[in-house]
Specification:
It is a single chain. The chain is α+β, with helices and mostly antiparallel strands and 258 residues long. The chain has 2 domains: 63 residues, Orthogonal Bundle (Arc Repressor Mutant, subunit A), CATH 1.10.10.10; 177 residues, 3-Layer(aba) Sandwich (Trna Endonuclease, Chain: A, domain 1). Helices cover 43% and strands 23% of the residues. It is built from 10 helices and 9 strands. Strands 3-4-5-6-7-9-8 form a 7-stranded mixed beta sheet, sandwiched between helices. Strands 1-2 form a two-stranded antiparallel sheet. β4 and β5 form a beta hairpin.
């Protein structure tokens, strides 16, 4: 477990060094991070995640596809839909759905609707519209400057696909929301909501805290914390009508006496 954590931390540091630069060579990464050159090269050429997030130019300089600052240029290339919250809220449901399905085709997302995928897209959008209605009443218009991405897709390895349902990106936090059209907490789905955390930490860098949460869209008045597997770690679980509580838990815009 420690070796795995150390490898993920090294991946994260190398990715951050690349994505926060205008182009950097492997030896410069090694010097900047005080790492062995062979370690850096091994990660650059053998990490499926970094090979997807970064590329090398003709001058042997490495560049990040997703910038680790707002706006996150390049996030569009990995998402079914990506925009500012303000732009998202300006679209009608049908306008958004058209862009969402076209974006999913662009990133290679399978749109097989036998399990109600498209209905789940609409349900997910409705929950987010409701969330931002609540947030604007509670904290004002500042949330309109945040970024939002639906169906964020990464290939961790040849046969592994990472689909984060919704990412909401504030000034220094990334909320990774897993949506289920259910009303009961399932431990396996809690674990599913948490499993993208280390990869998103690599994507967004150490300047961002990544917060996973599970949203049960057919529940109501639910907000609690659930254990992740057999670990001591927990994550928030909520119904759509209580999703604002997840954001308040970390942003603290509601006073204690409200």
């Amino acid at each position: 477990m420690n070796d795995k954590m150390n490898n993920e931390q090294t991946e994260r540091r190398i990715c951050e060094a690349i994505c926060q630069s205008e182009g950097i060579k492997a030896r410069e990464i090694a010097r900047k991070l005080d790492l062995d050159r062979n370690t850096v090269n091994h990660v650059l050429y053998n990490s499926p995640l970094l090979r997807e997030l970064c590329y090398q130019d003709a001058s042997y300089r490495w560049h990040g596809i997703i910038r680790q600052s707002r706006p996150h240029a390049g996030l569009y290339d990995f998402s079914g839909y990506y925009a500012s919250v303000a732009e998202f809220l300006e679209l009608t449901e049908d306008e958004w759905m058209n862009r969402m399905t076209e974006g999913c085709k662009r990133i290679g997302r399978n749109l097989n609707d036998t399990r109600g995928l498209l209905h789940s897209f609409r349900d997910c959008r409705g929950q987010m519209v409701g969330l931002f209605h609540d947030l604007r009443e509670m904290m004002g218009e500042s949330c309109l400057d945040w970024e939002i991405a639906f169906e964020f897709r990464l290939k961790r390895a040849r046969y592994v696909r990472i689909y984060a349902d919704v990412l909401v990106i504030t000034e220094n936090r990334v909320f990774s929301l897993e949506f289920k059209m259910k009303d009961k907490v399932d431990p396996d789905e809690v674990s599913q909501a948490a499993k993208y955390l280390p990869y998103l930490e690599i994507v967004f860098g150490t300047d961002y805290e990544v917060i996973p949460a599970l949203v049960l869209t057919t529940a109501s008045e639910l907000f609690e914390f659930a254990s992740i597997g057999k670990s001591n770690f927990i994550l928030p679980v909520c119904s759509g009508d209580m999703l604002f509580n997840v954001f308040d838990e970390y942003l603290g815009f509601l006073s204690d006496d409200e």
